[in-house]
């Protein structure tokens, strides 16, 4: 952790993943759900045969309890996590889910424990992506790249991670330079993306260890090659250098991040539409969203949180 992280914010956010064979993953679901709830921890954890992935938030003691429990399991003794802070609880509930993959690429037999790219520490990342022999690829989706990216990076403009393999197959120009450098939010997508690239015949494949989050934590802003904010999958919406909370809000109709300028747009209606989704939704959709927004407002007036779809 760096001094730039605001330690006075009351909630600790822990992002984690670990690829490892877990044949008994189903048996971990219920006790993990109970432990989180008993310790006031919220967020999402995904369990699968291939490991664990997720982000959780809570008071420091609660997060420490959950992490200690996980590391006490023989499969997760080497589990690493990344920390940031939040001024308010960034999740509405706790969900422990059983999945086929802990990050969904949809390609069989991709195993980062068998083949993966070369890890690059945040302090060495600038030199790699500034090398003219390197193609830099952002493996995130279009709504994430829209608010921030590394300078000179190629944006595949994917809607989901499932689209990434086909994008690689269609872009033969990726073979024009000897080095491929890849990055994502916390590192997990690059585990599978680099494994896939290696299997496609790319030899020099690198990825940013700890992802954008670790880079923003450790690399001083005056040395940074990152422009914008980093989208995160919780109510903070985005974080910036030093992992301080960003200024983006979330359109609860399309789940895209929006800026203050977009909120000022005549196409924006809280919980109903924004400039990104207005023309892709029907009037029936907007009527339904308005009803949901009304229920949220009523719950807030009662001092409650509305937990809905």
TrEMBL record:
Its EC number is 1.14.-.-. PROSITE patterns: RHODANESE_3. InterPro entries: Rhodanese-like_dom, Rhodanese-like_dom_sf, TrhO, TRHO_N. It holds the Pfam family UPF0176_N. Keywords: Oxidoreductase, tRNA processing. It is an enzyme of class 1 (oxidoreductase). It catalyses: uridine(34) in tRNA + AH2 + O2 = 5-hydroxyuridine(34) in tRNA + A + H2O. GO terms for biological process: tRNA modification. Residues 130-224 form the Rhodanese domain. Coiled coil: none annotated. One of its GO terms (molecular function) is oxidoreductase activity, acting on paired donors, with incorporation or reduction of molecular oxygen. Catalyzes oxygen-dependent 5-hydroxyuridine (ho5U) modification at position 34 in tRNAs. NCBIfam families: PRK00142.1-4 (NF001136). Belongs to the TrhO family. This is tRNA uridine(34) hydroxylase. It comes from Rhizobium gallicum bv. gallicum R602sp.
